[in-house]
């Protein structure tokens, strides 16, 4: 008979295997279950007595049998552990997640280790599948990735208008200028647009209403632009649009479309309706522009002339 001490230790071992927060499944060479602990019972809804002597693939018919069978056969043949990461395959067993902090995920993410069990003579005719619940790790990583994407987007976007910010505009202008300088692209036009008498809007209606006007102006610019155009807030009430593969004639058509839409638009606010106008200056990139600064100054100069000549108009730089 087995000594009492050994009986107690064996009892403790089985009790630990049943209540450990890790799934344990032992299968034979026919992929039949011979051990099925409490973790597997709780998450699968299949009791140990019902799982025992059943094929793993009969218990979980949705598992990719050929894929997993290949993994199991390799573990038998090589007698070395095989790891299945949640980053390669989200889960092996179709379990639901019950962790409160992972409410955004209904599925349990799992790491699975397939370990050969050596007999006393060194042979292997059983494998132990160890199932780890990695849902918290997976969800936290997904949340971190989402936060990083959001931060990246925020670093490129103007918070008020959701257009590209000044830094993004500068990068786009530089890329366009450098490409044109080596003869790889063109023609391109840079448009500078400025809301006329915007200070009066803020002084008369307040800055919150002024912000609404800026947001609506951004929507007009975006809706009138093509997929490849680059629209951004240059600063204050000034906007910039990079019209790629567009001549100055085409740019003027675009600018006049914007100008007329703004002129005809009535901006509603809780302090009354507002009507505004916009002035636009445009410069087509050419060999006469020896630097980015010259190109921007050319568009700014055209905008200055539009303002100086009475506002609510488009001026194309010579």
TrEMBL record:
Its GO CC terms?
Answer: plasma membrane
Q: Name one GO molecular function term.
A: diguanylate cyclase activity
PROSITE patterns noted in UniProt: GGDEF
Q: Does the keyword Nucleotidyltransferase belong to this entry?
A: yes
Q: What class of enzyme is it?
A: transferase
What reaction does this enzyme carry out catalytically? 2 GTP = 3',3'-c-di-GMP + 2 diphosphate
Q: Which UniProt keywords apply?
A: Nucleotidyltransferase, Transferase
Entry EC number(s): 2.7.7.65
The protein's required cofactor(s) are namely: Mg(2+)
> Can you tell which superkingdom this protein's organism belongs to?
Bacteria
A GO BP term here is: cell adhesion involved in single-species biofilm formation
| Keyword Nucleotidyltransferase in record | yes
Instruction: Please provide an example of a Pfam family that matches this protein in its UniProt record.
Output: GGDEF
Tell me where in this chain the GGDEF domain is found.
Answer: 186-318
Please name the NCBIfam families in this protein's record: GGDEF
Q: Indicate what this protein is called per its UniProt record.
A: diguanylate cyclase
Supply the gene name: ycdT_3
């Amino acid at each position: 008979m087995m000594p009492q001490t050994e009986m107690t230790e064996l009892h403790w071992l089985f009790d630990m295997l049943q209540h450990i927060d890790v799934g344990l499944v032992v299968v034979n060479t026919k992929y039949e279950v011979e051990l099925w602990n409490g973790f597997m019972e709780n998450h699968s809804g299949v009791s140990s007595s019902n799982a025992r002597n059943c094929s793993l693939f009969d218990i979980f018919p949705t598992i990719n049998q050929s894929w997993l069978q290949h993994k199991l056969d390799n573990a038998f043949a090589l007698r070395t552990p095989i790891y299945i990461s949640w980053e390669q395959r989200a889960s092996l067993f179709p379990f639901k997640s019950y962790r409160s902090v992972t409410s955004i995920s209904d599925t349990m993410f799992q790491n699975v280790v397939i370990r050969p069990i050596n007999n006393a003579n060194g042979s292997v005719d059983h494998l132990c599948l160890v199932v780890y619940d990695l849902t918290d790790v997976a969800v936290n990583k997904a949340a971190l990735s989402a936060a990083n994407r959001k931060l990246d987007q925020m670093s490129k976007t103007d918070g008020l208008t959701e257009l590209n910010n000044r830094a993004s505009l500068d990068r786009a202008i530089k890329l366009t200028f450098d490409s044109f300088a080596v003869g790889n692209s063109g023609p391109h036009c840079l448009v500078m647009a400025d809301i006329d008498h915007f200070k009066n809007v803020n002084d008369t209606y307040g800055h919150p209403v002024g912000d609404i006007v800026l947001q609506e102006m951004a929507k007009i610019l975006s809706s009138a632009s093509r997929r490849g155009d680059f629209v951004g807030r240059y600063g204050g009430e000034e906007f910039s649009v990079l019209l790629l593969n567009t001549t100055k004639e085409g740019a003027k058509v675009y600018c006049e479309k914007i100008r007329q839409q703004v002129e005809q638009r009535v901006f509603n606010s809780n302090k009354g309706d507002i009507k505004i106008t916009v002035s636009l200056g445009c410069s087509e990139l050419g060999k006469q522009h020896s630097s980015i600064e010259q190109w921007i100054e050319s568009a700014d100069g055209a905008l200055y002339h539009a303002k100086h000549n009475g506002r609510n108009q488009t001026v194309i730089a010579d």
